[in-house]
Design goal:
The protein is α/β, with parallel strands linked by helices. It is 40% helix and 19% strand. It has a 3-stranded parallel β-sheet, sandwiched between helices. The longest helix has 13 residues, at 66-78.
């Protein structure tokens, strides 16, 4: 399915496993640049980051600075966010 995401910048939370990891995989296969936020990384997420344009950001979104850190890293790296 063509979702017209080529070149779009997406931020994904909970990206290290389960649904979050599946979302990262789907987005990069559609050509999106992904900023993947998670408390820790996993070998699966690291493999996607090695193959595609995935920036892994270790972040705890339950803290007051967590969301700001994730968004800041996305904007610093890509200049914008298109998909959250």
């Amino acid at each position: 399915m063509e979702l017209h995401l080529k070149g779009k910048v997406a931020v994904v939370t909970g990206a290290s496993k389960g649904i979050g990891l599946a979302v990262v995989e789907g987005l990069v296969r559609e050509g999106a640049k992904v900023v993947a936020g998670s408390r820790t990384s996993t070998p699966e997420l690291d493999a996607l980051a090695a193959e595609y344009d995935v920036t892994v950001v270790p972040v705890d979104l339950s803290t007051s600075e967590g969301p700001e850190t994730l968004v800041r890293r996305a904007v610093e790296r890509h200049g914008r966010i298109d998909v959250l």
